[in-house]
Amino acid sequence: MNINSSLFSGLILAGGEGRRMHGQDKGLINVLKKPLIEYAIECLTPLVDDLSISCNRNKSRYSDYKIDCLSDYQTPGRNEFLGPMAGIVSGLKHARHDWLMIMPCDTPLMNTEMMRQLVDAIRENESRGLQAVVFSYQGLQPLHGIYHKSLLPLLEQSLAENNNSVQKLIRTTNTIEVIHAKGVVHHFINANDEKELNTIEQLITP
Predict the structure, then answer these.
(1) What are phi and psi of 6, to 5 degrees?
(2) Could you tell me if 133 and 177 are in contact, meaning their C-beta atoms sit under 8 angstroms apart?
(3) For residue 183, with 0-12 CB atoms within 10 Å meaning exposed, 13-18 middle and 19 or more buried, which class applies?
(4) Greatest C-alpha distance within the chain
(5) How far apart are CA 27 and CA 170, in angstroms?
(6) Three-class secondary structure of residue 142 per DSSP
(7) For 47-51, 133-137, 196-200, which range has the lowest pLDDT when averaged over its residues?
């Protein structure tokens, strides 16, 4: 897994069901007149060589961004929502490069500088043969991380066995490094409901 000269692919996870947002597609919800997906695009673009969006609906609207839109991976014989792990699998299969940087669409306060800590951690630990690096801040943050294609067999096996929890996979895989995010202010606040959306808008407003 030589990464000294490797580039990174990127994936924005926008395939959730939005249950706490009354079924709305969160990536298309506006915060200060800008869709949440655009904040994520701006965050990852400086760090990756190719970028995709994991989305299971409204593909025609996401396609306006001229970015590939991917449906969740489906295990044989199942046609149901399998959560973010299925999006990660699709992203890894589609990625141009071996390393895939991911983030969800609903953390608009996340920025490029914070995500760059993941890249630095991979480069600093190259000799250890890591398969992923994810953040920890007030608990695991597995949807802010970088994953290697070599994890695909384990991810696909987990889905086939109905073990869809990314957090559980991280806790039981010794080739995944968890790093404590440095300099956090409000970066990991999720836009999960109307109250959190209002909080985020207040924090973004100068």
Answers:
(1) -75, 155
(2) yes
(3) exposed
(4) 50
(5) 26
(6) strand
(7) 196-200
Give the Cα separation of 197 and 206 in Å (integer).
Answer: 16
Contact, 11 vs 18, CB < 8 A? no
Task: Give the whole-angstrom CA distance, residue 24 versus residue 16.
Answer: 9
Q: Please, what is the average pLDDT of the chain?
A: 88
**Token pair in block for residue 130:** 């890591």
CB atoms within 10 A of CB 162: 9
Nearest to 69 by CA among 80, 59, 77: 59
In order, the DSSP letters of 87-112 are HHHHHHHH-SSSEEEEEETT-TT--H
48 CA to centre of own chain: 13
- Nearest to 154, CA basis, from 143, 163, 145: 163
Give pLDDT tens digits for 78-103: 666 678 999 999 999 999 999 999 99
What is the residue whose two structure tokens read 């000799």? Answer: 127
The DSSP line for 29-60 is: -EETTEEHHHHHHHHHGGG-SEEEEE-SS-HH
Which phi and psi (to 5°) does residue 148 adopt? -100, 150
